[in-house]
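re: that chain from earlier
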Amino acid sequence: MSVIKPFKSLFYNIKKIKDFEKVISPPYDVISEEEQTRLLNLSPYNFTHIDYNKEKPSDDKANNKYTRAKKTFTQWLEKGVMVQDEKPSIYFYKQDYKVVGQKYSRMGFISLMELADEEESKVYPHENTHSKAVDDRLRLTKALSANLSSIFVCYSDKHKKAEKIFTKHVLSTTPLISVEDDLGVKHQLWRLDDESLIQEIDQSVQGQQLFIADGHHRYKVAQEYRRQKAQRKSAVTGNESFNYVMTYFTNIDSKGLQIFPMHRIVKQLPQELDFLEEYFRIDKVKNKDDLSILIAKAGRNEHAFGLYTLQGALLLRLKNRMVIDKYIKEGSKEYRKLDAMILKSLIFDRVGIPSDDIEYTNDINEVIHKVDSHESDCGFIMNPVKISQLKSIALNGETMPPKTTYFYPKVLSGLTVHKMD
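^ sequence. v structure.
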């Protein structure tokens, strides 16, 4: 049984679109309201017009953001703004980027992934989903009958089969798309339609445990869309397009796979944090710019995070790991050892910080700015989750606390679209 399946992707027509920087967009779930407005105004063909359009006060059942997205999408297809590939293909996707001045390159491929019933599936999520977000994406999927953005899945390929095929057969050809985003990440997309090579890649993925990095809501939507579609048919062959979902695959063993930490910004502290010495060794950090380096160094052997307030920066290191089992009762051993759970249980729950008073960001400078400008009382600087933790927790059937991981760089929206029958 195949895990991956080539498909005839829809993508922007290079004869119609000359400036790809103006039409591609980040995934909808990382776009702020301000960024949404900027993208919508950037071009009438920016992908946000169908993937993440704005609601209007006058919206009703007949005219809303989903019907407008469908109308826009239909017009793009009629005008040839987006065109369909001629042959079923998989699409190699290379991203070149820098982190703290160091160059990285992440290679993967976009194809369809077969969906299976939960008890048979080897796809493992690691984050909870929210019903409101699932309903939103499901309504959009139904309106357009399309996967607009890829699910981001990691698999293990120690022999680097896909990379070798890419290097030998694809890299020397001209990419379909080459574009640089606002963060300086270079995105390139190539087509591979050779059936024998695709089969080799498929064989390297078969039997694998697949871990969802990004796109938990899209995966949940694909499962629900499949269930509803199957219910309406008297017989299901398994070949129907709703049995598959557009997915980006990348090697979990690759050095180009980066997980950024997700820091916590606390708008208002209900009480003082004078109890911290009960649990943590506390060191003052003279230069706030050194905080992330010190946290990373401490985090190699112990649980550590930073605290930033108007009084300065502190490094917090857990004194005794035995307090984890004493105060954190839920979940497996791996789950209880998450820094996010330790922070929540030992500090947030004790102080009584409501979830609405916590903001999340992967940018330490945003934490510092929010505190220095008196917009927030404090910020907690975190270390990133390790790949080994993600795998263990996912295989346990558990899900991490919200906003625990941030995979970088993001897979752009608008590069490929899977139009279902």
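Residues 4-258+409-419 form one domain.
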